[in-house]
Fold Alpha/beta fold hydrolase.
Amino acid sequence: MADTEITFASGDVTLHGSLRLPDGVSGPVPAALLLAGSGPTDRNGDSALMPGSIGTLRFLADTLADAGFASLRYDKLGSGETGLGPYEVEDVAGLGFSTFVDAAADGLDYLAAQPGVDADRLLVIGHSEGALVGLALAVADDAPALAGLGLLEPLAVRLLDLLTRQINAQVDGALGAGALPLELADELRTALTEAVESLRADGTLPDDLPEPLRMAGFVPVNAKALAEEDALDPRVLAGALPAGLPVLTSCSARDTQVADADVDALDVALSAVALTSVRMTTANHVLKEIGERDSTGADYIEDLPYSAEFAVGFRNWLAGL
């Protein structure tokens, strides 16, 4: 099951990716577009911020091929061989989250046009933030009819609500450990509230936010993307999906980035679709088995098997499409 290196265009950007066709299958086959999570995460699910292999999207491509599905995964803008394309770092301020949705739409068009691919049986499968891209793509006015939508460890609430929850938890933890003075903790919480209000009001951020917030991505160069992504409520998008569309959601009790309760609420919003929910007990956010230990993020790049709980549910879902 060898990959074919490909490129496709989206606006001014040439995106680099890998096309996989299953071995030993004759005739047009169903095919899935795989969408990576946030940050500089490449076609394989590896991140430039972590010195090791994560491989989640490569694992999905392997599983799809075993089930007779073709797949396309690609280095989104800011990752892998695609890099920043024709842009300079300062140009990124003018790019919003829609840039990633547009690239996914162009990738899906490219996949549909490939010899050996059944253009009437296309899937979109997004991991983490990629699930939000997949949702936005699936409800777009010009979106093709999909044969299935996979939302794996998905961003299931509005982005700024999630970031607020995560940062406040970190502040509480540092305060409780005596590593942060109460006065500074209060300043951070106030600044965070003001930053969120500013992004939601006019899509801007001040230059003088506290360093911990800037380290968390609250910088003016990211303001447009943050505001655009936050405007996409996953539960609203879920409610706009075509009735009867086969949808799979997954989450794990060991995932420290996605709460089971949030995905449960997303499932409620998916009431009109044909929903399959995969719930795991021993997988981390990148679908690797970590047993009963807590995930710290360092386990993402450990040489661990991928979740058997996920693989069984995912394969069963594919078999029913």
User: Anything to note?
Assistant: The chain is about 35% helix and 20% strand. The two ends are 22 Å apart (CA to CA). The chain has a mean pLDDT of 95. The first strand starts at residue 3 and ends at 10.
